């Protein structure tokens, strides 16, 4: 038996892919998350009210999602409804994170695969590629920064935000600050649209070179977005069947009846299934489920996507293109929310802490995230973090098997395999710090 | 152009993301290694090595030892690398025991009994505390002559108005109820420790209405002493500015939210390391 190990880069955290083969036959493809910090244990005994400050440290890439999921879980346990203005400010945090994340995944993590570089910070080897790189990098970082600035504005700081509190948010956004943010977002919107087109074309070039969009087996998809538009602030998870029908839905509270988590002995991440079936979450799931958003660029890119790939679309590398639609969405949706008054009403409601159980659900960039707490004597007695990346682990391993079978035969291993492994994993944009927590 | 590398041990990538936002380095420095943004498998010889995250597994230890030989200057960034940071929460024995039992996996690298700061293993030339340090602070360490003015404490950078006659009788904790946006959080009864926390972050938390939890560690006045001295100074502030009973403050200071950071530099995690000299801390 031969074992091939591929360390991974340009993803969050420490992971590797291990492929076992025998006489050209692929025996197994494992996605191995190698780090573990232990948050589910650490938080035991922590005062519940401190969770929104502690849990963002699970992951600096997704800290906004953890911050908000924690606040929601506590609100659920205490029976508090935050006022509408607080929900709007929180949605802005989510959108800032979406902009930041999709821009990072597209232009920092996966663009190098389309240009044959090891990093966008490395000089290109030809004049041509250097020119494209030069044009892209500065603008891409500018778009990304608009996302982080939006989180800072709505959340206080862009890593480990602090402004969401049980019952609401600490403050609104005054009209001057909102106008300034709008200006910045309006300025990056055309840059983003251009970059999305460039990225789209480079992706088609890559697909032509390798032949297809990768593993296109039909699977179930899950996302916690509302059914009317592409709303990231929904309180139910919907399930789409392989044929594109919405076949199920459930609340955060019911997750154990629908999702099964299993551990493995080769990874600290484990995996989840939906009633025993492989699922996929993240951008492609949302784009498959989402309808028109009523936002011009978003709808334009969505229509182009549907026309080219149908609904539901299954090709793995289409995840990357779907992120482009969401990047446009993040900017356009934030622009429209920032037009409304954001400092005219109450930002929070009073509440009384009590013991019990609480669930928080948020659609993070990588899919539905659930925080589930048990509270005794105002202390956390048990915490479960249901992590988006983990929903995708089985789908990642299936997609790895497809490339492994394609590039390995009895006589040789095609050198392209290493690139292919990287492309497949990055399409899912996994986050290892979250997955293992 | 100076060559630099970023080694990430067990952390959350927040430090790396903050560095990405300090984009001024892009034109002036050569990034040679940083797996978050680059496919590269060996750290080449570099002038500056930034290390984030704590030593949690055998693999961390191995990577750390190999990496430091390649660099002229080693900089520990973020509280995880410097003093354990959020990993300090796992130091309670009962919790740690369950954790270590659960962490055992047949085919994975071994997890070490505790998560340790990097200077328990290697020499560190400079410390950049913060969870994470802000992009400006990253630029300040990369440029040797930082033009960034760093105030002694967060309190000085914050500047919210202190009210002589606003003396709360009980602690509101960290976050409960309304926050007045222009008045010192201590006057409002929140457990803010910005009065003795190292400046440099521009008071981002307190200005957003959230008490400082001390992620930058103690200011120069306390940094070379053990953490009891830091504790006491915070108690003094509260007895000076409020009528909250000392026992209430004392108990609150031992909460997990603060224990993530209150053991910085000094007698963290009972390792018995000498405190770090303040000249080495940005
Ligand atoms: S110091 Fe904070 S931001 Fe940096 S790795 Fe540790 S938890 Fe993350
Ligand atoms: S205000 Fe305090 S907790 Fe917040 S970033 Fe500054 S030092 Fe850290």
What's a concise summary of this model?
By secondary structure, chain A is an alpha+beta fold. Chain A is built from 14 helices and 14 strands.
Describe this structure in words.
Chain A starts with a strand and ends with a helix. In chain A, α4 runs antiparallel to α10. By secondary structure, chain A is α+β, with helices and mostly antiparallel strands. The model of chain A has no long low-confidence stretch (mean pLDDT 93). Chain A contains 14 helices and 14 strands. Chain A has a single domain (2-435), classed as Cytochrome-c3 Hydrogenase, chain B (Orthogonal Bundle). In chain A, β2 and β3 form a beta hairpin. In chain A, the strands form 5 sheets. In chain A, strands 8-7-6-11 form a 4-stranded mixed beta sheet, with helices on one face. Chain B has 282 residues and is of the alpha/beta class. Chain B has 2 domains: 2-148, NADH:ubiquinone oxidoreductase-like, 20kDa subunit (Rossmann fold, 3-Layer(aba) Sandwich); 154-267, no CATH class. Chain B has helices spanning 14-20, 25-28, 58-68, 78-83, 93-102, 135-142, 154-158, 204-207, 220-223, 227-241, 246-253, 256-259, and strands spanning 2-8, 29-33, 46-52, 55-57, 71-77, 111-116, 126-128. The longest helix of chain B has 15 residues, at 227-241. Chain B is globular and about 60 Å long. The model of chain B has no long low-confidence stretch (mean pLDDT 88). The interface between A and B is large, with 66 and 65 residues. The site of one iron/sulfur cluster (SF4) has 13 residues of chain B, from α1 and α4. One iron/sulfur cluster binds at residues 11-12, 14-15, 52-53, 78-80, 85-86, 131-132 of chain B.
Helix count from the secondary structure assignment of chain A: 14
Low confidence ranges of chain A: none
> Which molecules other than protein and nucleic acid are bound?
iron/sulfur cluster
Counting structural domains of chain B, the number is: 2
CATH topology-level name of chain A = Cytochrome-c3 Hydrogenase, chain B
The CATH architecture of the largest domain in chain B would be 3-Layer(aba) Sandwich
The total beta strand count of chain A reads: 14
Helical content band of chain B: 25-40%
CATH structural architecture of chain A:
Orthogonal Bundle
- Give the CATH class of the largest domain in chain B: Alpha Beta
| Strand proportion of chain A | 15-25%
**Corresponding CATH superfamily of chain A:** Cytochrome-c3 Hydrogenase, chain B
Strand order of the largest sheet of chain A: 8-7-6-11
CATH class of chain A: Mainly Alpha
Number of helices of chain B: 12
* CATH superfamily placement of the largest domain in chain B: NADH:ubiquinone oxidoreductase-like, 20kDa subunit
Radius of gyration of chain B from CA coordinates? 20 Å
CATH topology annotation of the largest domain in chain B = Rossmann fold
Could you describe the largest sheet of chain A, including whether it forms a barrel? 4 strands, mixed
What's the N-to-C terminus distance of chain A? 33 Å
Which class do the helix and strand fractions of chain A yield? alpha+beta
